[in-house]
Amino acid sequence: MLVHIGRIIHKKMLGKYAVPAFNTSDLEMTQGIVRAAEKQKAPVIIQTSVGALEYAGIEELIGIIKVEARQASVPIALHQDHCHDFVLIKKLINLGYSSIMVDASHLPYKENLKLTKQVVSYAHKQGVWVQAELGRILGNEDWQNVKSGDDLMTDPIQAAEFVADTRIDTLAIAVGSVHGIPVDPRIKKILSTLKEHVDIERVRQIRLKVKIPLVMHGASGVPDNQIRAAIKYGVAVFNIDTDLRVAFNKALRTNIKKNPQIYDPRKLFRPATDALQAMAERKLKLMKTSGHAKRFKNN
Ligand code: G3H
Ligand code: ZN
Question: pTM of the prediction?
Answer without folding.
Answer: 0.95
